[in-house]
Amino acid sequence: MNYVVKAAEWFVGLFQEGAKTFIDWMGSIVPLVLMLLIAMNSLIQLIGEDRINKFAEKAGGNIVSRYLLLPFLGSFMLCNPMVHSLGRFLPERYKPSYFASAAQFCHTSNGIFPHINPAELFIWLGIAQGITKAGLPTGPLAIRYLLVGLVLNFVGGWITDLTTRYVSKQQRVTLPRTMDGEIVHASKLVEA
């Protein structure tokens, strides 16, 4: 019987600890994320969605802006999952790579910009809690996480470019490099 009582106390204690964490977040991280979201949405409205869309189309012109600059700015301003909507301004050839880079950036930016991907904030908070218990500040960790993430996200986008090119060649599909291009499959060439 003693085991059942201890199990029940542990079970209730688990939810009590969760409630304490929730109340702590309501006084700290939740208002911060809310204010960042309001600020970003206000900035988008001030700049104008058309200007942001035109910028995204121009940024797709080279590999650095396509897999480093565009995912960073898109994640910062539009957050996850809206950052992926900027991929519509890229030719079909670059969409998989942009998605890979943007998706990765949404994970590696939580330490500094928690509004980008608040659904996964618990991962960063778990790491930060361990750093805090060790008596270390979380700021340097957040900056390192962001910088390493930027480099790895860029490399991930570039490697996905190479992989997409390889698979396209293997499947005999020609993906256009321009927005007005058409996807051509080898079977269409044979029919014509």
TrEMBL record:
Q: Which organism is it from?
A: Acidipropionibacterium acidipropionici
Transmembrane segment boundaries: 25-47, 67-87, 142-162
Question: What protein does this entry describe?
Answer: PTS glucitol/sorbitol transporter subunit IIC
How is this protein annotated for GO cellular component?
membrane
The record, for Pfam families, names:
EII-GUT
* Lineage per the UniProt record: Bacteria, Bacillati, Actinomycetota, Actinomycetes, Propionibacteriales
The source's superkingdom equals: Bacteria
Alphabetical keyword list: Membrane, Transmembrane, Transmembrane helix
Q: Entry's PROSITE patterns? A: PTS_EIIC_TYPE_5
**Gene Ontology biological-process annotations:** phosphoenolpyruvate-dependent sugar phosphotransferase system
